[in-house]
Write a structure and sequence with these properties.
The longest helix is centred in the last third of the chain and has 18 residues. This protein has ten helices and ten strands. Strand 2, helix 3 and strand 3 form a beta-alpha-beta unit. The termini are far apart. The strands form four sheets. A four-stranded parallel β-sheet has the order 1-2-3-8, sandwiched between helices. Strands 4-7 form a two-stranded parallel sheet. The chain has a two-stranded parallel ribbon with strand order 5-9. By secondary structure, it is of the alpha/beta class. It has one domain: Rossmann fold (3-Layer(aba) Sandwich), CATH 3.40.50.
Length: about 250
């Protein structure tokens, strides 16, 4: 497939106060891109950069909108498409995980749920290389693929904190935020959004995502289909962040 044209669609709504807010970008936006691709004399490959959240559509508006966007592609077997579901992405330009790691660099890991919950991670550089590998492989056609940094069974909060401690040379303490406090903040955000039109990040549905105990994936399918393997471990990625902030 090398040399063929391709379209990469990364639907980008991550904030919202209702399911409609997320559907506007993640579903309607995907439908518009899909229609534009289908209208071409020779339709290009379409790679939808989805999210691991789509695996659990019942958790949040965001997760449901991501799954709905994927289902639009699944309904078009006549087109050449593939779907990537990355886990939490970190690295240059990151706005979600970077505050977490910055807090760890100051000595505290803010835990929104169970400290033993596990999640996979991937550095943005590895994500980009995976996108390229998938577009160049014909075996990825009509596949929904997950990917991660290769750490078996992902990380719990203690493991991430220990790696951060080794990187920044200081002890990192876990602070499990009281459930009632986060619940109050999330509900206040939702109520205020209804009055101001603000699109909050932390809402009750988003909390269900953050408290989910299993966001772990492996690379078995993507390696078999595209030959891709990650290169950047979390320890190496954190060291890059440390040097970038010096």
């Amino acid at each position: 497939m090398t040399g063929s044209t391709a379209v990469i669609h990364a639907a980008g709504a991550v904030r919202g106060a209702s399911r409609r807010d997320f559907d506007h970008i993640n579903v309607r936006g995907t439908a518009n891109v899909l229609a534009a691709v289908a209208a071409q004399p020779t339709p290009p490959r379409l790679l939808l950069l989805s999210s691991l959240a789509a695996r659990e559509p019942g958790l949040s508006w965001y997760a449901a909108s991501k799954r709905a966007g994927e289902e639009l592609l699944a309904a078009r077997p006549d087109l050449d498409w593939l779907i990537l579901r990355p886990p939490a992405v970190y690295g240059p330009g990151d706005r979600e995980m970077l505050p977490v790691f910055r807090a760890m660099a100051r000595g505290i890991a803010t835990v929104p749920g169970d400290a033993t919950a596990r999640t996979s991670l991937i550095h943005v550089t590895d994500l980009v290389s995976a996108i390229i590998a998938c577009l160049e492989s014909g075996a990825t056609r009509h596949q929904t693929l997950t990917l991660c940094d290769g750490k078996a069974n992902g990380y719990d909060w203690r493991e991430m904190a220990d790696l951060a401690a080794a990187t920044w040379g200081r002890k990192v303490r876990l602070w499990q935020v009281p459930r009632w406090l986060l619940d109050c903040v999330a509900w206040v955000n939702l109520r205020r959004a209804g009055l101001t039109g603000h699109s909050p990040m932390l809402t009750p549905p988003k909390l269900r995502e953050l408290r989910h105990r299993d966001w772990v994936v492996d690379n078995m399918d993507i390696t078999r289909a595209a030959g891709w393997r990650p290169e950047i471990t979390l320890r190496e990625g954190l060291e890059q962040l440390r040097k970038a902030e010096l």
